[in-house]
Amino acid sequence: MNFKITLLPGDGIGPEVVGEAVRVLETIASKYNHSFNFQERLMGGCSIDKYGSSLTDETLADCQASDSVLLGAVGGPKWDDPSAKDRPERGLLALRKGLGVFANLRPVKVHPALMEWSPLKPEKLQGVDILVVRELTGGLYFGQPKKREMREGGEYAVDTLEYYDYEVRRVMELAFNLARGRKKKVTSVDKANVLESSRLWRQIAIQIGGENPDIELEHTLVDTASMRLITGPAWMDVVVTENMFGDILTDEASVLAGSMGMLPSASLGESTIGLYEPIHGSAPDIAGKGIANPVGTILSTAMLLRHSFKLEEEAAAIESAVDGVITDGCRTADIGGKLTTRQMADEIVKNL
Ligand code: IPM
Ligand code: MG
Description:
352 residues, Isopropylmalate Dehydrogenase
């Protein structure tokens, strides 16, 4: 089959890890007789430097016209000026909104061989297999008003946490559907004891729970959820939550896996176009050194093949190749080894 993939390597280590992920996809293409057409575009700080905008209309249109988008990472100290009118992160948010990808799937699994890299005791990590479904195009990130101004003789800033029922319903339904293929359990995370938007969130969770009696539903307040992630992660399965809560909880959950560099993500919407990216950032401190862990991006290509192209066998082949090299002791620096980004990817490609 023939597919068009837009690559947005972005900033920092983004180009290094995306480059290796492309080699993995090319290997899959030749083994399974597919043809992947790659088109590369700028997004993030690199796009500000070249075009004066973190995401141009043309780049967004190119992404919308492709079958899927693979992203590295955006941002860096160079573009961190708080008074700048554009920031690399704005491009990412505009891309998520422009692609309509309202659900961000962040699976967290712990490879037994990497347990020592997690700050948690191994007995806590046994059996951890969590899928966080983060709402991605609403809530605190996008709510209006969102601004700064002078008020009453002082500086004033506001962000707004708002949700429409349909925004909650669609991400909740997706979470329930995903739970059906797993342990049939959904943990809905909110702050319903304080926030009105969370009371709407919980009401809709209960409604959808009623429509899906085969799935067990529990509600957890976000503060409790952050504690449970550390004290009892093994009994969480699908976790569904508001945009900002999900941002925070997934960074926390990532330490369970030993390194952020290991974790992939998929952002999905109504159409089959998805946005796939590792959950780590642009890591400016190690950019250009060729030592970043490419696994999170490589596993993101597996999610791309599974969710956007329905190529389950190919996706599973990548996941098992990654599993194999970790079992064999291949390690980049973040997980205590000496392999370069390229060498790590070489091992994975060999294992395909
Ligand atoms: C993430 C990142 C982004 C977010 C930033 C870079 C805008 O932290 O994907 O988790 O907050 O969504
Ligand atoms: Mg984040």
